[in-house]
Specification:
- This is NADP oxidoreductase.
- It comes from Draconibacterium orientale.
- It holds the Pfam family DUF2520.
- The protein is of the alpha/beta class.
- Helices cover about 45% and strands about 15% of the residues.
- Helix 9 runs antiparallel to helix 10.
- The longest helix is centred in the middle third of the chain and has 31 residues.
- The mean pLDDT is about 95.
């Protein structure tokens, strides 16, 4: 596949996706980022050019991957002339048509994974969800997606938004709970590392059984003696106390339902 790609954005997702595409034989002709350090860092990894000005974007790329935070997409793209080139955003929550005013040919390339720049991931195992403004554009995205991943699904904007909400619960919120656990342990001079086997087993169970069946702990039976003792212990940390109480109530209410 002989396609020239340009990446608008140089953050965590752009770094992993661009690097993976490059290793798969796709040509990355330029990287854009608002900050020179980020643009240069990714461009050096890819052995390609970079710019910090949208007015200096190359006009000969076949596909422009937009890997920006959602709130920056319209502002950054508003001054760019894409002509008939394919413009693709990588957001889980933005609809396909957000790109329609910038490019006739547009699409979505959403990778369902959490990314950190310096942590390796196996892109072949990452589910990719695509959508496009035409069947021709969809086939192009499908070909690229199949080059880098073993799991490719065509999904409309509404379903993708629902998937993204679920991903926030499963990933971002779960990780925040890890952070709060670490914060609490620090006050007790205990290392977060002692929770790692528990975290691994919890995640492992989620691979083998429905999360509702895997739930344990005092909240599922609303053991008030334990819950109240924990809440009293957290009096000096009201943010954790509120979170503990809210989640405990949610767990109990969820397990009172038949389904």
């Amino acid at each position: 596949m002989s396609l020239k790609l340009c990446f608008i954005g140089a953050g965590n997702l752009a770094t992993h996706l661009a690097t993976t595409c490059s290793k798969a034989g796709l040509e990355i002709v330029q990287v854009y980022s608002r900050t020179e350090d980020s643009a240069k860092l990714l461009a050096d990894k890819l052995n390609t050019a970079y710019t910090t000005q949208t007015s200096s974007l190359v006009n000969y790329a076949d596909i422009y991957f937009v890997a920006l935070k959602d709130s920056a997409v319209e502002q950054v793209l508003s001054g760019i002339e894409f002509g008939d080139k394919l413009v693709v955003h990588c957001s889980g929550s933005l609809p396909l048509n957000v790109l329609s005013r910038f490019a006739k040919n547009h699409g979505v390339f959403y990778s369902l994974q959490t990314f950190s720049k310096n942590r390796k991931v196996d892109f072949r195992k990452i589910p990719i969800f695509i959508e496009a403004s035409s069947e021709e554009n969809l086939q192009i995205l499908k070909e690229i997606a199949n080059t880098v991943s073993e799991s490719v699904t065509v999904l409309n904007s509404e379903k993708r938004k629902s998937l993204h909400i679920a991903a926030v619960f499963a990933c971002n919120f779960a990780n925040h709970c890890y952070a709060m656990a670490a914060k609490y342990l620090e006050t007790k001079d205990l290392p977060f590392e002692i929770l790692r086997p528990l975290i691994m087993e919890t995640a492992s169970k989620a691979q083998e059984m429905h999360p509702k069946q895997a739930q344990t702990g005092p909240a599922i039976r609303f053991d008030e003696n334990i819950i109240n003792a924990h809440l009293n212990e957290l009096t000096e940390m009201p943010d954790l106390q509120e979170l503990y109480n809210s989640i405990s109530k949610s767990i109990f209410a969820h397990h009172q339902k038949k389904q």
